[in-house]
Write a structure and sequence with these properties.
461 residues; 20 strands; globular; 22% strand; alpha/beta; single chain; binds zinc ion; seven-stranded parallel sheet
Length: 461
């Protein structure tokens, strides 16, 4: 048996054409039944209904996901899936392969070199997760931004790896993968950990621990005993049904899921119903969450279009520039942000701007952390996964629909995360207060008011 094909392919679902192995070795695996095959696109014949297509990689069945083309390879008219096209085209004449041979023996259990201490609330949540894993039920960890969620996961993940189980931590955001990867690698020094995201490459061989964007789960099938879905409410997981299906497909039959979030959605509450639940209302340093304040900025768009920054906004920036506190200003659109950047640069030429497709995003965030730039303009792309001591945050245009309740809570969650700087300003500049803004503030106040009580339920007031 070819062990390197086994190690690579076990738990994956891969386009046969793109397997990084010589053709004759792949052919031998197919012949001996070690490699299983699924058609790229499956045509479902339904009684009394038109045929339906399903992409076997992303499981999309939406008719809008499929398009026909004259296929040069097979000479026929083929369909391909538009929904997962960013991961390479899957067409009806493509074959998706998976490992069907004998399983790879488990690796020796890794050590846990993380030596930090958990707060009592973190400890409790960690034990509750372990309990749910033992019972094989789903679990929801609802922890405020800055509760120290990663540390809570170390022990449960470690105990799974010790048992020879395979574990995935999935998150919608590449930035979060990049933030978690070095921390888990440092904690489990002798385990192979793959970090998978758009452009990362597939990782070599087999990894018992995979940290991946939720999109990368399309490339797995029956792989994981447990999947931790981090920041599960973040776009696009909350909107995209196929991503939820991808979590199910990537899990082994009977595998379980742990959802980790600061802002649980209705879907998530439904999916974990009957499972375990942990709630942490306090940040690890024990200080309350900063409460966003509202500042009216009437007709700010007109002022910016006329080439000047609204006075209150430029005063806010000037204060941060003189105190030297790093800051983020969140924008509802790339267009407004780019229109505003030259005006901010009149205050300080080093202020930069980042959005989803900016290439220098990572460099700019690092420069902000290192104090080389005083502040950044950003879209909601930086609403999560960023920890910078002393950070202050402003939203320009908080009335825009992109600033949902959970987006505002997450943005507020960037501020006051470190123990020596537990406070900071979160200001929502707006042209009219929305229900989402009110809801976010109400929820933060509620979390701050509630005390931890022994049974984990909110104190009644
Ligand atoms: Zn697809
Ligand atoms: Zn074809």
């Amino acid at each position: 048996m070819n062990e390197s094909i086994r190690d690579f392919l076990q738990g994956r679902l891969w386009l046969k054409e793109l397997l990084p192995f010589p053709e004759e070795e792949v052919a031998e695996g197919l012949e001996r039944g070690w490699i299983g095959v699924l058609p790229g696109i499956h045509r479902q014949n339904r009684r009394f209904l038109p045929d339906r297509l399903r992409c076997n990689r992303c499981l999309s069945t939406e008719s809008a996901s499929f398009a026909s083309f004259d296929c040069a390879r097979c000479g026929k008219v083929c369909q391909y899936c538009r929904h997962c096209i960013r991961m390479g085209r899957v067409a009806s004449c493509d074959e998706l392969v998976y490992w069907a041979g004998p399983e790879r023996p488990s690796d020796p259990p890794p050590g846990l070199s993380w030596a930090g201490r958990l707060t009592p609330a973190q400890q409790k949540a960690s034990e509750e997760i372990l309990e749910s894993l033992r019972l094989g039920r789903p679990h929801l960890l609802h922890a405020v931004c800055g509760a120290g969620k990663t540390e809570i996961l170390f022990r449960p993940v470690h105990s799974l790896l010790e048992e020879g189980k395979r574990v995935c931590i999935a998150t919608p955001r590449t930035d979060v993968v990049l933030e978690l990867l070095p921390r888990f690698r440092a904690a489990f020094g002798d385990a192979t950990v793959h970090g998978l995201y758009g452009g990362s490459g597939p990782g070599e061989g087999f990894a018992p621990l995979v940290i991946a964007t939720t999109h990368q789960l399309y490339r797995f099938r029956h792989a994981f005993d447990v999947i931790f879905v981090d920041e599960a409410d973040a776009f696009p997981y909350s909107f995209d049904r196929t991503l939820r299906d991808a979590v199910k497909k990537a899990a082994k039959p009977g595998g379980s899921a742990v959802f980790v979030t600061a802002t649980p959605s209705a879907v998530m509450l439904a999916e974990t119903e009957g499972g375990g639940r942990s709630v942490i209302r306090r940040r690890f340093h024990g200080h309350p969450l900063p409460v966003p304040r509202f500042e009216a900025l009437w007709n700010y768009r007109k002022q910016i279009a006329a080439g000047r920054l609204p006075k209150r906004l430029s005063e806010w920036i000037a204060e941060r520039l003189s105190s030297g506190d790093p800051f983020l200003v969140f924008f509802p659109s790339v267009r407004l942000m780019e229109q505003s950047l030259p005006l901010f640069n009149e205050l300080d030429g080093r202020i930069g701007a980042v959005h989803a497709s900016s290439r220098e995003r990572r460099e700019l965030v690092r420069a902000l952390r290192d104090g080389k730039v005083p502040g950044l303009l950003t879209t909601t792309i930086l609403e999560r996964g960023i920890t910078i001591p002393g950070l202050q945050a402003a939203v320009l245009g908080a009335e825009d629909s992109v600033f949902s309740r959970s987006a505002i809570i997450q943005i507020g969650g960037r501020v006051g995360r470190s123990a020596d700087r537990p406070d900071g300003d979160v200001v929502l500049f707006h042209h009219g207060i929305t229900p989402e803004m009110d809801d976010a503030v109400r929820e933060i106040r509620k979390l701050n008011r509630e005390e931890e009580v022994p049974d984990g339920l909110p104190a009644v007031r």
